[in-house]
TrEMBL record:
Organism: Rhodococcus kronopolitis
Molecular function GO labels: nicotinate-nucleotide-dimethylbenzimidazole phosphoribosyltransferase activity
Protein family membership: Belongs to the CobT family.
Protein encoded by which gene: cobT
Name of this chain's protein: Nicotinate-nucleotide--dimethylbenzimidazole phosphoribosyltransferase
NCBIfam families: cobT_DBIPRT, PRK00105.1
Reactions accelerated catalytically: 5,6-dimethylbenzimidazole + nicotinate beta-D-ribonucleotide = alpha-ribazole 5'-phosphate + nicotinate + H(+)
EC id: 2.4.2.21
DNA damage found in the keyword field: no
Pfam family, one: DBI_PRT
Keywords, ordered alphabetically: Cobalamin biosynthesis, Glycosyltransferase, Transferase
Length: 375
């Protein structure tokens, strides 16, 4: 009897949450890019972090020089959270569904920012607490996730379906030609599970990491900190099991993002991470698919204290610090022009040889040689 009931569960987990080993971006293409950086018409190292960024893209694309991104895509994962009904957010849960409609109408920050960078935007309802358009709800797992301070966010089956949904979305995007992915999110209350994941995986006290989210007041912060503490107590026994951690202490949207971010790495597609919620999902994705983090760059540093902890944990240095705390993929989109600049310079600048520009170091060496050898 026991084997009959656990067998299918184990194989479902094997399918949805097992990832083949993640290959690193190409070291050869990255080295070739580093060498090319030295030949371009600029003082050595003068493009600063744009140089390391461009070489990272070359590694991800396995080509030097790299190509400008042809189809960058943002996927906004929308989901509600039961905990939002317990005074942990400055806004009512209804805003999640209302913002989904706003994304579809093109009126949100993510739409405005995507338009200036050439990125496409797709919104997916993973767990919004109302019925949404068929166009966005094909991967819906359930209506809202459980209130993690007092119950599990999801069942085992829902967790696996959410991870599988994120993986399927990444596959759909890559199969349609996406060459750069951004995960964004929208969900009133979602900084609470994000903080629970980050604090649990870094063994940090709630008071040190709970932030203001959408802008809660002091009384809201106290309620949120208590909710984070209670949820952390519930996840403690499963913190080493990423699927169980997602089931007990996250939500369907976060589980889907974890699947999406891990699958993007498996599909050798670079990703710009956004703020605290996406980076919390990224931490779990790295547990599910070790090495996935080498395919990600951190777009920005959110004002949420837990975000810095997550970035340190993943050893990622954010590209911009603009005191943003919006989500939706907005911080990643603000960073996208930096990636485009890194690729454009590496790919399109002339070399010293082609442009007939003298290289300081080589000329000095030639002079030194001539001086040293009068013959
Ligand atoms: O990305 C971030 O770092 C970030 C920081 C604070 C808030 N948010 C957004 O605000 C919502 C969650 O905030 P809250 O206060 O409802 O937990 C959700 O829709 C997120 O996209 C996002
Ligand atoms: C209006 C609004 C827009 C958002 N976008 C992402 N999170 C959000 C939260 C609110 C409240």
């Amino acid at each position: 009897m026991t084997t009959e009931s656990t067998g299918p569960a184990i194989s479902a987990r094997a399918t949805a949450a097992t990832f083949d080993p993640v290959a690193h971006p190409s070291a050869a293409a990255r080295s070739a890019a580093n060498a090319r950086q030295l030949q371009l018409t600029k003082p050595t190292g003068s493009l600063g972090r744009l140089e390391t960024l461009g070489s990272w893209v070359a590694g991800c694309q396995d080509r030097c020089p790299p190509q400008l991104f042809a189809r960058p895509r943002v996927v906004v994962f929308a989901g509600d959270h039961g905990v939002a009904r317990h005074g942990v957010s400055a806004y009512p849960a209804e805003v999640t569904a209302q913002m989904v409609a706003n994304f579809q109408a093109g009126g949100a920050a993510v739409n405005a920012l995507a338009a200036i960078t050439g990125a496409g935007v797709r919104v997916v309802d993973i767990a919004v607490d109302s019925d949404t358009d068929a166009a966005v709800s094909t991967h819906k797992v359930r209506r809202s996730s459980g209130s993690i301070d007092r119950e599990d966010a999801l069942t085992e089956d829902e967790t696996l379906r959410a991870i599988a949904a994120g993986r399927a979305i990444a596959d759909e995007e890559v199969d349609s030609g996406a060459d750069l992915l951004i995960a964004g999110e929208m969900g009133i209350g979602n900084t609470t599970p994000a903080t629970v994941l980050i604090a649990s995986l870094t063994d940090t006290e709630p008071v040190a990491v709970v932030g203001r989210g959408t802008g809660i007041d002091d009384a809201g912060w106290v309620r949120k900190t208590a909710a984070v503490r209670d949820a952390m107590r519930r996840v403690r026994p499963v913190v080493k099991d990423p699927v169980a951690l997602l089931r007990v202490g996250s939500g369907a949207d976060l589980a889907a993002m974890a699947g999406f971010l891990a699958q993007a790495a498996l599909r050798r597609t670079p990703v710009i991470l956004d703020g605290v919620v996406v980076t919390a999902a990224a931490m779990v994705a790295e547990e599910l698919a070790p090495g996935a983090r080498f395919w990600w760059v951190a777009g920005h540093r959110s004002t949420e204290p837990a975000h810095s902890l997550a970035l340190d944990h993943l050893q990622l240095e954010p590209l911009v610090e603009m005191d943003m705390r919006l989500g939706e993929g907005s911080g990643a989109l603000v960073a996208l022009p930096l990636l485009q600049a890194a690729v454009a310079t590496l790919a399109n600048m002339s070399t010293f040889a082609d442009a007939g520009v003298s290289t300081g170091a080589a000329d000095a060496d030639e002079t030194a040689d001539v001086d040293a050898d009068p013959s």
